[in-house]
């Protein structure tokens, strides 16, 4: 085991981005005149298990960073908004103490902590994607033990304590949700709360829910009826199942469409959006991490197919409430160290492009894709947790979202000779040739293109020698300004800079400032400032290393 970990460390801390092999040619062509329709910014959703980190120093900083990506349109989902406790965070834990009972069993509501969580986000341009859960201790059918003591390395099943159980009184549960939603309207205003998403629980088709499937449906009905009683125009949905849900998803959708509502006695339950989760499945193979993009995308493929099978639901907005390379965000060290570097960032770029393609394949309305990654306060630097920043320092993956925020409002056609066809990725992932692809957009005077060089295996490989052509530019245009941002071993990569420093346990001020500079989205210095345009065509040439992501923007007056 010790030898295996040593081998992993050697691979993980060596740069996989450069190899002695000769570069291979890739031709990328963008047709700015070929519109594929409006480009929804589906990437603007984020989340985490631990709500209380959002109000701490680095949490506030990161929320502010996310809010600037698309002010007022970024959403944050978090567990534990109704969990009992004093608000002290821990891994896979958080609390607000919103509900307790007095000696006579009468409800006592306290919105202090949950208001602080919501207000902190709203002040930074981030709106709530409200997860109605988990069960307050005073309402749980199994109140002891309540707070778990899980930490990285312990068995995962230890987290499912009293918060995961049904309520002892569904009427009290419904009243709690009503009082909460009513308070939100009073505190933040109906116009604001109308823009939020409200859904019940998390992954109630696995042990996050310790009741029966029917009890979850009942829980959901009471919660949604309560929200709509407080605000009839509230946006409500669900079920945020783990995976596509399969038969459980069909059961949920059938109930919402045609079942008897447990709370109101009427037919059906309001459903303004449909949500489920999708995760990849990486493995440790031959001394390196091998990503599992195929099962991630297959889950989306099957989930979209389920929704599309209901004609009355095909146009409903879909939010992928968690969409990540694997499951446990709080796990760290060992094989998870890849998440601090460019494996994670290149995976993110490659997978998001295919999520759009899968939605188009099924003709469904993909509204959001939520990245379940935030930050853990005062942890070791680059510990390998699935986060967007470490001790206030952005990771390469956050720079991918900075790139996404520069994309335009309309998607246009892009073809790459190095892209792996979607059907091949669904079958076998990216295990042979690498995936060198492009995703393009336009506005009135701009074309913005994200390009990536991805492989499931975290091993060295040759650069792609990219010939990049943009066609369909205005016939009268003679020159366009060029900006070329890059994420790779030497750009937009604080993790690589930290390794170059010798992996200091506690960086000094000079080192911390250097890490901050390295964490910003960097321009490729050798990129030209402008490009000639002839007959509506602009052409660039550049190398794209393994695991690199580029954002190329052409602008003109």
From TrEMBL:
<dbReference type="InterPro" id="IPR017853">
    <property type="entry name" value="GH"/>
</dbReference>
<feature type="signal peptide">
    <location>
        <begin position="1"/>
        <end position="19"/>
    </location>
</feature>
<dbReference type="GO" id="GO:0005975">
    <property type="term" value="P:carbohydrate metabolic process"/>
</dbReference>
<comment type="similarity">
    <text>Belongs to the glycosyl hydrolase 39 family.</text>
</comment>
<dbReference type="Pfam" id="PF01229">
    <property type="entry name" value="Glyco_hydro_39"/>
</dbReference>
<dbReference type="InterPro" id="IPR000514">
    <property type="entry name" value="Glyco_hydro_39"/>
</dbReference>
<feature type="active site" description="Proton donor">
    <location>
        <position position="203"/>
    </location>
</feature>
<dbReference type="GO" id="GO:0004553">
    <property type="term" value="F:hydrolase activity, hydrolyzing O-glycosyl compounds"/>
</dbReference>
<dbReference type="InterPro" id="IPR049166">
    <property type="entry name" value="GH39_cat"/>
</dbReference>
<dbReference type="InterPro" id="IPR051923">
    <property type="entry name" value="Glycosyl_Hydrolase_39"/>
</dbReference>
<keyword id="KW-0378">Hydrolase</keyword>
<keyword id="KW-0732">Signal</keyword>
<feature type="domain" description="Glycosyl hydrolases family 39 N-terminal catalytic">
    <location>
        <begin position="27"/>
        <end position="521"/>
    </location>
</feature>
<keyword id="KW-0326">Glycosidase</keyword>
<protein>
    <submittedName>
        <fullName>Glycoside hydrolase family 39</fullName>
    </submittedName>
</protein>
